[in-house]
Amino acid sequence: MTYTAPAAEQRFVLDVIADVPGLAALPPYANATPDMVDAILAESGKLASNVFAPLNAVGDKAGARLADGVVTLPPGFADAYGLYVAGGWAGLGVAEAHGGQGLPFAVAVAVQEQLTSANMAFALCMMLSQGAIEALAAHASPELQDRYLARLVSGEWTGTMNLTEPSAGSDVGALKTRAVPHADGSYRIKGTKIYITWGEHDAADNIVHLVLARLPDAPAGTKGISLFLCPKILPDGARNDLICTGLEHKLGIHASPTCTMSFGDNDNCVGYLVGAEGAGMRAMFTMMNNARVQVGLQGVAIAEAATQHAVAFARQRVQSAKFGGSREAVRIIDHADVRRTLMTCRALTEATRALVYLNAAAVDRGHAGDAAATGLADLLTPISKAWATDVGVEVASLALQVFGGMGYVEETGAAQFLRDARIAPIYEGTNGIQALDLVGRKLGMDGGTHWQELFAQIGDTLHDLNANAELAGLAPWLDDALTATRAATLWLAAANNADDVAAGATPYLRMMGLTLGGWLLAKQALAAQKQRDAGIGDAAFLAAKITTARFFAEQLLPQVGALSAPVTRGAATLFAISEATLAA
Amino acid sequence: MTYTAPAAEQRFVLDVIADVPGLAALPPYANATPDMVDAILAESGKLASNVFAPLNAVGDKAGARLADGVVTLPPGFADAYGLYVAGGWAGLGVAEAHGGQGLPFAVAVAVQEQLTSANMAFALCMMLSQGAIEALAAHASPELQDRYLARLVSGEWTGTMNLTEPSAGSDVGALKTRAVPHADGSYRIKGTKIYITWGEHDAADNIVHLVLARLPDAPAGTKGISLFLCPKILPDGARNDLICTGLEHKLGIHASPTCTMSFGDNDNCVGYLVGAEGAGMRAMFTMMNNARVQVGLQGVAIAEAATQHAVAFARQRVQSAKFGGSREAVRIIDHADVRRTLMTCRALTEATRALVYLNAAAVDRGHAGDAAATGLADLLTPISKAWATDVGVEVASLALQVFGGMGYVEETGAAQFLRDARIAPIYEGTNGIQALDLVGRKLGMDGGTHWQELFAQIGDTLHDLNANAELAGLAPWLDDALTATRAATLWLAAANNADDVAAGATPYLRMMGLTLGGWLLAKQALAAQKQRDAGIGDAAFLAAKITTARFFAEQLLPQVGALSAPVTRGAATLFAISEATLAA
């Protein structure tokens, strides 16, 4: 595959939606000057295009292989990882106090988008390490930080998250892995974890496993869970008692080793407590929230890559005369139906990108002390994760369709995007879990001020659109979407039957995603118009921004209204058919 | 996988929607008595469950293999094919005059649905042979029929369709394969065909290839195309000069050999003309129309199988407490969000099944001399093909999601449904081509009488609903859908810019699919109510029919209105961004 980083688009969204210039005015992010951001995106774009992308099909075909507890990555991956480390990319978004470059999460996310577009299976490794860095930076003792954090920030070592067990998937609180205190202050860990991404591989000298486990006297459920650091290689250079016993045979992301990890087969797996006993879930959520934003980003990244791939094909493939036109065969990009597909891909990609970058910037503002921003980030996170990953699958499938029969043949590469994309709605909390998190926890937070504030901002944009001769046509579509979404929100807030709320969760999350997407594209159209009128920037790019916002408003925003009934019809019909009849 | 044929549901749809009792009153279909149909569905259900289903995962894993022009099927396939032949299944829907059992296409479709649910890759072989039988029955000389038709009807030999070439996919008229007349009245064929389904295999003694080619003096485009029969083995027992030179490495249907076929490498490939010179496309369309219905059926079949699979898992998998409930973990079928997913799967499966069976029965009525029924079948065919295959992919993906992480692991089998389903929107005319066929050809046929008649029938059902205390609640949803669809139809009929019509084609087809689906489920609800009140049939099944119709009306029909704008906004926005900017 070839991949070209959409640096102009990324920069525009970082400026207009994430307000990185505003972030750079805050003490922690002073490094994020416009020149620095441009230089970073240009360099990471090269890494993505020249190093990661050429390995994407290689990794899919060869996959990660396991023999005797040793995982061998596909050819080229270990060397590529070396280039990533040498470039200092692992510390990009890490605070300078921890040896990083102190750039905002929003900028790190833009870089990670590029790497993920180019090679999602590989970029997962980086994503997991980022999570481990975050958890250790926030919760580990200075001693543990000294020993492990610096090597993760440099990229020399990689990190993992070990939550899932065979009977504890979405229900993390059901996990059974045990941790027993040891005389030297460490613990001995025993248990089996499954679906451990990049749990074992041959590209780094050490792997820092963060493992959720229970102390012998711990209470049931999530309150009894503590977090432990189990290094693959112990400080004295000996191998810890943990091993990869299996790799999953998956639909996609073949180059990402999805490991079954066995801890303490010989009762000698050393673990170090991270944070307080019983505070494991809280520590895990620190990293999980940002990981959810990053998984949403995977949806954006695959959508971008698949769209680029399909546009390139549509520009060169000649097939059939135009509908109702002369008999001369044209390139398929000239067919209106193919254009519709490509515009849908583009609009969804840009809308989800804006949402994820906005979310990341809210995380940054929260870290800089803005409590309202943290509330916004918390509200947006399940929407970013679920809507953007659904979009990733949808766009990958639309893009595959552009190739016709060739799309179904693996060598073309379109099918890999679909296979890779399909994991993202599942892991890091299924999209159903995200929807329940949104309606059950996030809407009601702080008395609902966060969604109220968000809707007020959409109202401001509506005001700007209505006052704008060129863009006023977007307003009715966005207004209808906002009205329907607000009504659904109020219905959920007033509902007093938990099943009814749960029944509406998934369509409600989609309403929110679409409405926010339409809003963020409209904001970009307003900004593009301003830049154009001021003679700043590339005219074609700015005109396209306005067109894409219009397309999204007219063609996709109407879906919001169609989701009102699904949100508000309650659970009765869903449970009216007995399960025996459902199975018949 | 386990698969249980939904015989009660199939029988209900055959009775209520396809009106098989009415068909049995027509001379060609006198054999289709209720007892006979029940016996057939019970027997084919056993074949599907006991023979086809156990080979589904086997076939996916082993795939078809090619060496030196010989294709070896996965273990067990050749024997299973023998059982299919021994059961006389190949001739089920073939007229008695040609040695078949003379049952309606609608009944044959119900059988084919079962086989496809159990093993889509394998059932494709049967589907292709049916197409070859149809083409030869309609267009071949008595001599050719004598030599080839009987062995296809018995199932001893299988058949293929050879249309596509590297530069002639959707644009069949661009094909280059040559046919030169030979002194003995036969022809010599030379050319390469790609994507030939079941083009070579080891389960039958001979393969009857139907090949589109051009005579030396033929005009350009589709008018210059003729149809030829090229047997793998010639009447004298010698091998014909045709060979499989490659197999595609595909996303799914691995057990179905997708062949590159080389005809006449030694200038000695014997072909026999089927029908008149230059009439090849017409002959091909004979089989293609029914093949399109059968591909739509693949969407139904995969949706059914994937839904069964997900329901079975949801009934046994225990994970997490109910939202807002006590802390006790429950089976995931008790979670409202999972129920929503399963109900969506069920409603979409039943709606598309009804549409495809209705379509098949209209084909039958047309064959029996009802010209209006032929018009209806022609109108419905692109909707059946495209909407049902889109639904197949959507339901397979929803069903996969129910499994969480396990859905992404190949051993579970959920991923195979998605991979297999994904071809159906592509082959036999991409869904984009179907949409253009609908708006460009089918709507305007016979002055638009066919869609007018269809909408009038929906109006009749609305009348029945409104007069029915229990079911009147369905009417407003169906009424809104019909109103929007009618308005979109009139807009398309009045549009005088071909690009605008083409731009609206895909969302319009989806409007039609959803509206027809909601209508056909409402019709079933009315019939179920009648049976229930008369004390006929299984009460739980009939109650579920009413619930499913209500779910579809309230939850899915609102999408129709959201498609009005996409249909009617025209092409301008789609082409507003230059392709260079689109690619940037």
From TrEMBL, chains A, B:
Q: What Gene3D superfamilies does the entry give?
A: Acyl-CoA dehydrogenase/oxidase, N-terminal domain, Butyryl-CoA Dehydrogenase, subunit A, domain 2, Butyryl-CoA Dehydrogenase, subunit A, domain 3
Top-level taxon of origin: Bacteria
Domain Acyl-CoA dehydrogenase/oxidase N-terminal spans what residues? Answer: 87-156
Entry keyword annotation includes Aminoacyl-tRNA synthetase: no
Domain Acyl-CoA oxidase/dehydrogenase middle, first and last residues per copy: 161-264
All copies of the Acetyl-CoA dehydrogenase-like C-terminal domain together span 454-577
Q: Name one GO molecular function term.
A: flavin adenine dinucleotide binding
Keyword Cell wall biogenesis/degradation appears in the UniProt entry: no
Acyl-CoA dehydrogenase/oxidase C-terminal domain spans which residues?
Answer: 278-438
Instruction: Print the keywords alphabetically.
Output: FAD, Flavoprotein, Oxidoreductase
Where are its TM segments located? Answer: none
Cofactor(s) the protein needs: FAD
SUPFAM superfamilies on file? Acyl-CoA dehydrogenase C-terminal domain-like, Acyl-CoA dehydrogenase NM domain-like
Q: Which PANTHER family match?
A: ACYL-COA DEHYDROGENASE, BROAD-SPECIFICITY LINEAR ACYL-COA DEHYDROGENASE FADE5
Q: Which family does it belong to?
A: Belongs to the acyl-CoA dehydrogenase family.
* Descriptive protein name: Acyl-CoA dehydrogenase
